[in-house]
Amino acid sequence: MSLEVETRWDVNPRKETLRLLRLLFICGHLSKETLKNAGAGCEHRAVDELLWAGIIAEDSGCYKLSRAGVVFMREFVVTLSPHGTTSIAVDIPHAFIVMPFGEPWSDCVLTDLIKPACSAAGFSCERADQAARVGDLAQGVWNGIMTAGLVIVEVSVPNVNVFYELGLARAIGRDTLLLRQKDPPMLVPADIRGMLYCEYDLQHLETGKNELARQLREWAKKQRAFEVRSVANEHHAGPLSGI
């Protein structure tokens, strides 16, 4: 007996709006009818908001990207958040920690190496399972990556969830720092061998803590992270305040 499973692809108005932006970027200008036939979201409220914001313009029954819209689409990766709108932080001294939860060494590496290193470098930090959140763990991971200046990723064991979260961070351009144990050495996948990493010894976590803190300070200095935080706290009343 075969079990038939119905696959449903829901219509997402936000995705239709993104489709509209991409088509206008590729084609220059298109009529409302052409965009409607392509399911490009012409009848959604989001289009009125794009017009109001000056991202698109209406001209003789056609839509086109404004000059600002063209620059934005050309210079940045514009895509959908899988969990709705989330504030995006850039280059602040706040680290999101990605690591396996169930290894015998997980808790001690977190409490004796990563957290003290972050504190010594002037960083705040959080791990998805320990952060206050609304929604499931996946949403907590996404929000954590989006609102961190830097993502610290422990890759000493081949953990599927860890590499998935590392991929999310890299896909949105988030700076990442890999942690790995010196012994036994893990064969790091080719795609990430050239990334910045910090090695440590489980028997000498204090040494690893000092090295991680040094690298965090170096990153913060190059990215002017503390200056960014100062400006954000002074002028922004939203989620960045108090970081």
Structural class: alpha/beta
Low-pLDDT runs of 5+ residues are 239-243
Which value, in Å, is the CA radius of gyration?
Answer: 22 Å
* Count of beta strands: 8
Number of helices: 9
Q: What are the secondary-structure elements, in order, as H or E?
A: HEHHEEHEHEHEHEEHH
- The percentage of residues in β strands lies in 5-15%
Roughly what is the average pLDDT, rounded to an integer?
Answer: 85
User: Number of folding domains?
Assistant: 2
Into which percent range does the helicity of residues fall?
Answer: 40-55%
CATH-assigned fold name of the largest domain: Rossmann fold
Shape: elongated
| Main sheet: strand order | 5-4-6-7-8
Largest sheet descriptor: 5 strands, parallel
Please name the CATH architecture of the largest domain: 3-Layer(aba) Sandwich
CATH C-level label of the largest domain: Alpha Beta
Distance between the termini: 57 Å
